[in-house]
Structure formats: structure tokens, C-alpha cells
Amino acid sequence: MNCLNCTNANCLVKRSCFPLIQKDYPLNINTINCKKGQTFILEGSPVYGLFFIRKGIVKVSATGYQGKEQILRFAGAGEILGHRGYGTEEVYRISATTMGESVICHISNQDLQQLFRDYPNFTYNMMRFYAEELNRSDTKVRKLAQMTVREKVIDTILYINRKFGQVNQLLSLTLSRKEIADFAGTTDEQVIRTISSLKKEKLLISKGRKIGIPDIDRLKKEIAEHNFFLDA
DNA sequence: GCATTAATTGGTC
DNA sequence: GACCAATTAATGC
Questions:
Q1: Strand B nucleotides in reach of protein CB atoms, 7 A cut-off
Q2: Does the C-beta of A210 come within 7 A of strand B?
Q3: N or C: which end of chain A has fewer CB within 10 A?
Q4: DSSP A224
Q5: Which burial class, exposed, middle or buried, applies to A208 when counting CB atoms under 10 A from its CB (0-12, 13-18, 19+)?
Q6: What are the tens digits of pLDDT across the range A10-29?
Q7: pTM of the predicted model, to two decimals?
């Protein structure tokens, strides 16, 4: 597989290096076709390059004490994975699992170094990406520490909406209650209770296991005191 | 349809 | 607000 016929305009490699990359440029992209629920980066395994999502949605998580899962973020097409391990770390500190059918691109450490040398624009864009990531993880810490459970659940739902949107008034990415809890840093029972009271307040609707937001601005108001880092 | 998994509810600490 | 247990709903095969 190579990047020439890739249609993913969001990809950082494509954006930064094309149309410069020619047919004979020695770049080896491994593409991995994944079904739902496949873990293609495993916490603790040696770092062997960077991953880019070509298609699909991936959850990034780390395992804590007694196997407790903390979901750190969800990533969509064009986003970068495994970057924190690159350079300094010898093993990945996160796992990455597909939420649905996905296509993942992988670039080896060697090819990556070559790209960094050949395409300063790519290097610069990567640096900007790292800076943004640092900001996001910073705000994530503050949210976990300062928000109430109710606020964290609302924030999680708004985050999913912001990132992946709604279809027919329902969030297009369906998370289990436990996944919401693992992202928000609470338990699935708390999530269930919060969601059901939000439904009573008409701030949320649901069909089966899917959740919808009837009025996004009204829901945003619920966490307005934390507006400071709403967009993270 | 049945078996498995997820959601919900109630109770205890 | 977490953890546990019991019940009920949803989903996969």
C-alpha cells in the first residue's frame, strides 16, 4: 500500500508530504484491516513506529490498578496513534482498540526518521500536534479531578458529539455505559443513573442503547462553570 | 429462539 | 460515590 491513492485528506502524512512524495520514494506503509474490537497497539509491547487511522474510530486506553480501564481518548480518521511512545519510550503505555471496522496505516521507526528529515513541514506539523496533545491531556486531568460525576458524564457525551456528531438526533458513535464510565473516570452504575436523570430533565433522549442530545446549548450550560476548557 | 452480554435497580459500606 | 447482587432488556448466533 502507498499513500498516492489514499483518499484520506485529513492524514497528517498526506497533508504534510504530498504532493512531494513520488512513486519511488522509499516509504513502506503497512495497512492493517481491523474488525471491531481489535487491539492493534498493546500496552507494554515495544514501540515500533507510528499509526495513522485511515478509516474508522479507535479508542485509546490504559490499564490501571486491578485491570481498571481508563479510556484516554477516541480517535477518528486522520488521527495519529502511538506517538507518545515514539522516541523516548521503549514500550507503549497505551492500548488502541478499534470501535468498528477500521483501516490503520503503520509507519516504521526507520521510515519515520526518513520522513522527518526529508519533510520539515511534516516534522513541524508533528510538533504542533504534540503541543495540542499536551494541552488536551492537561485539561483531561483537570476534568477528572474537578468535575462531578454528573458533569463528567455530560462532558463525555458532548465530547463524543463534538468529535463524531449525531445522525437522526442520536450520537453516531455508540458507547456502552461502561465505556462512558471508563472515559469519565467513574462507574457504569453512576453513568446509568446520571443518564436516566438527564433524560427526566429532557436534556437527553435515548433509543435502545443510543443516546441523543435534543438541545446541545442547553446541555452545554450544565457544565458552563468549566467553560474554560470546553473544547478539549 | 436461546444463550450471552449489557443495562438497570436496589442495597451496603 | 464505589462495589456487589439480582433482575431485566438487548443482541448475537
A1: 6-11
A2: no
A3: N
A4: G
A5: exposed
A6: 889 888 887 656 667 778 88
A7: 0.91
